[in-house]
Design a protein that fits this description.
By secondary structure, this protein is α/β, with parallel strands linked by helices. The protein is built from 25 helices and 21 strands. Strand 14 and strand 15 form a beta hairpin.
């Protein structure tokens, strides 16, 4: 392989090396070619004009700055490697420098306790092996090397998997040393609702935890909640203060996770926001769509109060599109508007009778909203809920707490295809919910305009569909009827953003979501931004929060410069995601003997009697022991641009 074909990237070493470079990313961002890249699994070079020596120098400096210093060889080793390479690039290289760098790199790899030391030396060694002539010529020439332009980013499998890229390993390390307040500061840099996310996040970070390859993954969500709970218990506020106030004003439509996050991070930057919320309390769908037994409203209210402490004003009971228009906001002096309307409507089942207005038929969204308001939405003893997601789980578990004694969940696929959190499925089953798989609704049976039963059809799984799950196929002649007192469909949600916009002002997709740049979140109309469910369709709470956080950065950029230019950090995050950080097939060189921390939960027979929180927090000893299990799987990425 020629000099211009330097490539040792691990993802491709098993493939044909002749085509390796063709399969690797060649763009960092729009109109920004990726010349070369160094990272945890090797390096690759697209542009033959890249100075490999200078790039390795820049990478060594990044590794030095990220070394935590707890390992003596790692701390001093990277310091010496960076110094040697810097001297070479300044024209002061000496005989034996390369051998010293190689020796130090191998020593660090062999002795480091965390993955900064275990992975960062690899691309340095690969560069010395594949491009040794470049180093030898530079040392011999004794001429300074011009510095290139690079973008560096630190990541980890858990960080990369988190939509908001919360620095998990960093805050776990702080918890390990009982610095919960510093841990909370780290969390809030990327997640302004730690108490909320610490209770209801779907935990993509835990699915990408490398500790799973050793024994059992880490209870990351529980540790996030621990840090947030300490602040409430001790009454010590660990959140940052608002930035120096700036003159421009921003309006935020919706006080759900995306809207609260946008207002929070704009407040940190000094911009005061007015948040318009149709409900009478904060949280959006998190407040009226997630029952109190999972997410107590007091937690949401407390964290929304922290958004207000940063200068935001939340106006409740104001429905944009009815009480005030988008044009009104712009004429009232708001230079930017962030639209964060949630997905408050339900998809249709395409079932005969669902639009007939029968009593005791109610969508899952409406059912949960009315339960959250303290109502008994429907009466009866036997309930059928149709769906397989977390909303369906919330419906069946809430029904038990309302007094239904025969609660059934119907799902057209099998449990293996259910999108709901496995913990929610397990706890619902423990509480007495009866699951019916491979069943689809056909027709609602009614008597005197009231639900009496549901005609169903049995299904079988066919070929996979676009979601990757096997498509349910009806079995002819398998119709049957389930008698019941009430039916609640919970098969999906749709955004209501078109209700707040003047027709034709901003492009809306066929899925009733807004059209906007997927990096800057700016719509086609200057000064109008969006994020969360009204941009992506129904997604996770942490994804909505990440959208609000990232949109705030570009709103601030727009207010300061009048333009929105994608940042190098965002471009690097996308590149890293493209390369992939977590290797699900990785084989670890050792096995552990510890198990994941599972917070205590109320017994099923007790928890179904009320909406009291089911899961408890953990204590300091448990949090310390669990955080000690972290492998600190940091990865350093550097791109030449």
């Amino acid at each position: 392989m020629g000099r211009e074909g330097v490539s040792t990237w691990g993802a491709w070493t098993a493939g044909a090396k002749a085509t390796a470079l063709d399969r690797l990313p060649n763009q960092l961002g729009p109109d920004q070619p990726l010349k070369a890249f160094m990272g945890w699994d090797g390096l690759f070079v697209h542009d033959p004009d890249v100075n490999l020596v200078d790039m390795v120098r820049a990478y060594a400096q990044a590794a030095r700055s990220e070394s935590c210093g707890q390992c003596f060889p790692c701390r001093l080793g990277f310091e010496k490697i960076a110094a040697i390479l810097d001297a070479i690039c300044q024209g002061h290289g000496r005989a034996g420098d390369l051998e010293r760098v190689e020796s130090l790199a191998r020593t660090i790899m062999a002795s480091a306790r965390c993955d900064i030391g275990q992975t960062a030396p690899r691309p340095i060694l690969d560069a010395l092996r594949l491009g040794r002539n470049d180093f030898v010529k530079t040392i011999a020439a004794q001429i300074p090397v011009p510095k290139g332009r690079y973008a560096a980013r630190i990541t980890a499998p858990c960080i990369n998997a988190c939509p908001s890229h919360v620095n998990v390993a960093d805050y776990l390390e702080k918890i390990r040393f009982d610095r919960w307040d510093q841990a909370l500061e780290t969390i809030r840099r990327d997640c302004c609702l730690p108490g909320v996310v610490g209770r209801v996040c779907v935990r993509p970070c835990e699915s990408n935890c490398r500790r799973r390859h050793v024994d059992d993954g880490i209870a990351i969500r529980a540790l996030k909640r621990y840090a947030a709970d300490q602040e409430l218990k001790k009454g010590v506020r660990a959140s940052p203060r608002p930035g120096a106030e700036k003159s421009q004003k921003a309006a935020v439509i919706g006080a759900g996770p995306a809207g609260l996050a946008c207002a929070y991070y704009l407040g940190l930057a000094g911009y005061r926001c007015t948040v318009f919320e149709a409900l009478e309390e904060p949280g959006g769908m998190a407040a009226v769509g997630i029952p109190d037994y999972r997410l107590p409203r007091r937690i949401l209210r407390a964290e929304a109060a922290q958004v207000e402490a940063l200068g935001a004003e939340i106006r409740y009971g104001v429905e944009v599109g009815r009480d005030i228009t988008l044009q009104d906001l712009q004429t009232q002096g708001y230079q930017v508007v962030f639209i964060a309307v949630g997905a408050h409507e339900s998809f249709k089942m395409r079932c005969e009778g669902e639009d007939a207005g029968y009593r005791c038929f109610m969508t899952g969204i409406e059912f949960l909203r009315r339960v959250a308001m303290g109502e008994q939405p429907i009466e009866g003893k036997k309930l059928l809920v149709i769906g397989g997601g977390n909303v369906a789980m919330d419906c069946v578990r809430s029904a038990l707490r309302l007094g239904f004694t025969d609660v059934n969940l119907l799902y057209r696929r099998t449990e293996a295809e259910m999108p709901a959190d496995p913990v929610e499925i397990k706890e619902a089953r423990e509480e007495g919910v009866v699951f019916h798989y491979l069943v689809a609704p056909v027709k609602i049976i009614a008597e005197n305009n009231k639900v009496k039963g549901l005609q169903c059809l049995r299904m079988e799984l066919g070929a996979p569909d676009k979601s990757g799950r096997r498509r349910p196929v009806p079995k002819e002649g398998s119709d049957f009827i389930i008698l019941c007192d009430a039916i609640v469909p919970a098969i999906g949600q749709v955004s209501v953003v078109d209700c707040v916009l003047p027709e034709g002002q901003i492009a809306v997709t066929a899925w009733r979501t807004l059209v906007a740049d997927d990096i800057t979140f700016q719509t086609g109309k200057p000064g109008i931004f969006t994020g969360g469910d009204c941009l992506t369709g129904p997604a996770t709470l942490i994804a909505a929060l990440a959208a609000g956080k990232n949109a705030a950065r570009y709103i601030a950029q727009y207010l300061e410069t009048g333009i929105c230019q994608p940042s190098e950090d965002d471009a690097m995050d996308r590149l890293i995601a493209c390369l992939g950080v977590f290797d699900g097939k990785e084989s670890m060189p050792f096995c552990g003997q510890t198990k994941k921390l599972h917070p205590p939960v109320l017994a099923p027979e007790i928890r179904v009697k009320s909406f009291d929180e089911v899961e408890a927090g953990v204590n300091q000893a448990q949090a310390t022991a669990e955080s000690e299990r972290c492998l600190r799987c940091f990865r350093i990425a550097l791109a030449c641009i």
